[in-house]
Amino acid sequence: MRSISSRTGEGATLVAIPAVSVQPPLVQRLRDLVTSDQAVTDLRRYFGTDPHHDAMLFTGGRFERLAGGGDREEVANEVTSDDLIAVQTLSVRVPAQVALDILEGHLGDRLSELLRFVPFDLDMAEVEAAVLAEGAPAHTAWHVLCDQPGIGPVTASKLLARKRPRLLPVYDQVVRCVLGRPKSFWLDLHSALRADDQALHHELTALRRAAGLPPAISALRVCDVVLWMHHRTNHRQGNCTGT
């Protein structure tokens, strides 16, 4: 509530006016898509839980669960061959020379050193913004990957999302477009997930249950798939109504 002074005669009275909550554009856009009638159907199709559609129609449905997941405690701080295969289910490929350096060389050592300081057991909505900010270990790992030949922002984000599915989001051109090209996706999404006592995060976990998905599918991944499924056809056809 807020109050304004209203003068009547010589006296002044305070009149209470209800505060109007205005959602930032990104928050409103996300919540509109997450709560749409199509969201549950799209998730079931993508992850193969809809008996009326081919369970292998979208290979990305195996991304986080392949070989038990990339965030298992015993492998959480190293990029494995399973992780390199997993990102291929999202239609990207790590070049062979870079893959060998990750598995057997200094690049893998550097990534492991950084991953040790990136929590694997927390959701994005649970951490402070500093964990995702420029200069933090997670962001540094992203830069290290982007600096490799044949690795761009999309492949880097997908590889890190495999290692930290609860904390770091998948991000590609389709999601970027449907959200209107946010300036800082990690921080903007983090802010959206934490707004109103984590309302969006709770809506995503409720959507996961409604679609019959296991907890291994993170709230971030639910969000990514809903956005991607909503906009993929229009994006590929150049009809980007999402923006």
Task: Summarize the helices and strands and which ones pair or pack.
Blueprint: E1 2-8, E2 11-17, H1 25-34, H2 38-47, H3 81-88, H4 96-104, H5 106-115, H6 137-146, H7 153-163, H8 173-178, H9 185-210, H10 219-236
Antiparallel strand pairs: 1-2
Helix pairs in contact: 1-9, 2-10, 3-7, 4-5, 5-6, 6-7, 9-10
Could you explain how this protein is built, in words?
It is a single chain. The protein is mainly alpha-helical and 243 residues long. The protein has one domain. Helices cover 49% and strands 6% of the residues. It has helices at residues 25-34, 38-47, 81-88, 96-104, 106-115, 137-146, 153-163, 173-178, 185-210, 219-236; strands spanning 2-8, 11-17. The protein has a two-stranded antiparallel ribbon. Helix 3 (81-88) packs across helix 7 (153-163), helix 4 crosses helix 5 and helix 6 packs across helix 7 (153-163). The longest helix has 26 residues, at 185-210. The protein is globular. 35% of the residues are buried.
Question: Summary?
Answer:
Helices cover 49% and strands 6% of the residues. It is mainly alpha-helical.
Radius of gyration: 21 Å
Low-confidence stretches: 1-22
Please provide the ordered H/E string of secondary-structure elements. EEHHHHHHHHHH
| Helix run count | 10
Helix content: 40-55%
The pLDDT mean sits at 88
Class by alpha and beta content: mainly alpha
Number of beta-strand segments = 2
Shape: globular
